[in-house]
Amino acid sequence: MAHNDTILETRGLTKEFRGFTAVRDVNLRVRRGSIHALIGPNGAGKTTCFNLLTKFLEPTSGQILFNGADITRERSSQIARRGIIRSFQISAVFPHMTVLQNVRVGLQRTLGTAFQFWRSERSLEVLDARAFELLGEVGLTEYAHLRAVELPYGRKRALEIATTLAMEPELMLLDEPTQGMGHEDVDRVTALIRKVSAGRTILMVEHNMSVIAGISDTITVLQRGEVLAEGPYAEVSKNPQVIEAYMGSPDVGSADAALQGAHA
């Protein structure tokens, strides 16, 4: 992979908590413009990895590079300004504001006026055209004036994607985007992720294997904080070690069955 094809790279990324190693020597390379999925059994270190990348946690050792620049020591606010934006970590939505107002807040953040809520409502109207554009992109135009709390669950996730997009991410980190959803919502959000991935890079933690099989370019499998396997789904799903990690037995046939069954 040529240097400028790599948007995010970790070198020997390690995180220890009081003698317990949650992430050990992880070397991750995310290709620009790809959808890259981080998977693994519970306790594999996926969330810790995300927390290290967004600087909610400091690594014990190792390096994080974004567009070739070492960002290992930067604060989470600096990382967000560089264009690494994380969604779904906690609901990024203000429940009692309308769908439109939520997206405007995301747009304000990029303008640096996030703390100027005292400014007149009229000054925000300039943001409306862009906000409606984003709502159109995620299929929420008709819900614009509904309070976020009144949205169905899957549509709330679409709103979180819209507010994340409002912050103009170069790299979007999606944390379990389809968690707790029924089939219809899963399909809608998967289609939405595929749609908004155009011209962007997405790194996602996801449990639903059919989602990952359908949209990921590259999959990294973590087990006990270490990289167990990496590659396209077709290749990773045939890896005996991956099958064993998920099912506890290497002779299930294919990881495809094992993985699909693991989180059915």
Walkthrough of the structure:
With 264 residues, this protein is α/β, with parallel strands linked by helices. The chain has two domains: 175 residues, Rossmann fold (3-Layer(aba) Sandwich), CATH 3.40.50.300; 63 residues, no CATH class. Helices cover 35% and strands 23% of the residues. The protein has a six-stranded mixed β-sheet, with helices on both faces. Strand 10 and strand 11 form a beta hairpin. Helix 9 runs parallel beside helix 10. The mean pLDDT is 87.
Keywords:
2 domains, 11 strands, 264 residues, Rossmann fold, alpha/beta, 10 helices
What integer is the average pLDDT? 87
Summarize the main sheet: 6 strands, mixed
> How far apart are the termini?
34 Å
Which fold name corresponds to the CATH topology of the largest domain? Rossmann fold
What is the count of DSSP helices, taking H or I runs of 4+ residues? 10
Overall, the morphology is: globular
Helical residues, percent: 25-40%
Helix-strand pattern, N to C? EEEEHEEHEHHHEHEHEEHHH
* The top level CATH class name of the largest domain: Alpha Beta
Unreliable stretches: none
| Structural domains: how many | 2
Using only CA atoms, what is the Rg? 19 Å
Architecture per CATH nomenclature, i.e. the level-2 architecture of the largest domain:
3-Layer(aba) Sandwich
Q: Give me the side-by-side strand order of the main sheet.
A: 7-8-9-4-10-11
Strand content: 15-25%
CATH superfamily of the largest domain: P-loop containing nucleotide triphosphate hydrolases
